TrEMBL record:
GO terms for molecular function: hydrolase activity. This is Alpha/beta fold hydrolase. It comes from the Bacteria. Pfam families: Abhydrolase_1 (PF00561). Keywords: Hydrolase. Residues 29-225 form the AB hydrolase-1 domain. SUPFAM superfamilies: alpha/beta-Hydrolases. It comes from Sphingomonas rustica.
Length: 272
């Protein structure tokens, strides 16, 4: 039975303004970085299972998402990674396991490249390893669609977003959580298209090739980018690998205990 986990909300000063985050008070530090266009509440259903396994979730709203101040213009993944160190400093944490889901996995990789002395290991929850032409084509496709995202009468833009998320969830996520996904997306403080533009502009393959910290490549077989995770594992067979059966882009909610256990099992193999 999952215990109740008390997560306290905090702010830290970062290079672009205030950074909002929430953190538990004890356990081995585990930074969690969300996908675009969500925020730290994406991980609300795994806080308890992670704490049950002795981990201390530290979930950050990256710049321009949730309640964190945005960058002045379109951010890069490197910009988003600048949110992590100020949070660790605010908590008095020297080193942590740093991980994320989709866009968050890219940010965790970049943070580990820039600050390896502060990273015990990296959790790549959805690597984006694909040919450059394909990656940039996706960037342009997302940008063209998301730049047109705007408020419509009767909140129809929210309805359309809810329908899109229901499509991806394929009946596995209830209406309350789908509504929460819409609320999280509506809290984006930068332009709506910034997150995916940053993600698909980033050469995750090159970053993973250069990564010198231990890592877990975490995927699920129903994820739309599962093949990219398999390619990342072929590139770096020295990294641990775990794949949960089924699910989709919402695996954190679809299989919260299995997702948390995959991370906790991996962290248990690391030195203290």
């Amino acid at each position: 039975m999952t215990m109740t986990t008390t997560m306290r909300r905090h702010y830290a000063d970062g290079p672009f303004g205030q950074i909002h985050f929430q953190a538990a008070s004890s356990g081995r530090p585990l930074v969690l970085l969300h996908q675009a266009v969500m925020h730290s509440d994406q991980f609300s259903n795994v806080f308890g299972p992670l704490a049950d396994r002795g981990l201390r979730p530290i979930a950050i709203d990256m710049p321009g998402f949730g309640m964190s101040d945005p960058t002045d213009g379109p951010p890069t993944i490197a910009d988003l990674a600048e949110a992590v160190a100020p949070v660790l400093d605010a908590l008095g944490v020297d080193r942590a396991v740093v991980g994320g889901h989709h866009t968050g996995s890219l940010v965790s990789t970049e943070f580990a490249l820039r600050h390896p002395d502060r990273v015990d290991a990296v959790v790549l929850g959805g690597a984006i390893v694909m040919p450059e032409a394909q990656r940039l084509a996706l960037r342009d496709e997302f940008a063209e669609r998301e730049k047109n995202f705007a408020a419509l009468p009767g909140a129809q833009h929210m309805v359309e977003l809810a329908l899109t998320r229901e499509h991806f969830a394929a009946g596995t996520i209830g209406p309350e959580r789908i509504s929460d996904y819409v609320v999280q997306a509506m809290m984006a403080r930068g332009a709506y298209w910034y997150g995916h533009h940053a993600a698909f502009s980033y050469d995750h393959a090159a970053a993973i090739a250069a990564l010198a910290r231990p890592a877990l490549i975490l995927s699920n077989t129903g994820d739309m980018i599962h093949d990219a995770a398999l390619e990342a594992h072929r590139m770096r067979p020295d990294f641990a690998f775990a794949a949960i059966d089924g699910g989709g882009i919402d695996i954190v909610d679809q299989e919260p205990v299995r997702w948390a256990d995959a991370i906790a099992d991996y962290v248990a193999t690391l030195a203290d």
